[in-house]
Here is the input.
Amino acid sequence: MREKVCGTDHFIALAKRYTDIQELTPELLRLFIRKIVVHEKDVKWSKHARQAVEIHYNDIGYMGTALDETQGMAEPA
Here is the structure.
């Protein structure tokens, strides 16, 4: 728990230092993002099929989205 809080504090301190970002550079990406995971599409060869992308941040890890929570729910028939 302490490591998680310390990592979050470090991430927030970095974010406060870079509040006016005009251009996204490779150095900034490396500073904030550990890895990006791109999953396969649900329907191959489709231009409009959804494709999941996970962004894992340095110091805090993967932060799920609201879309992740709704995917677990059953879709109406």
Notes: The first strand starts at residue 33 and ends at 38. The two ends are 42 Å apart (CA to CA).
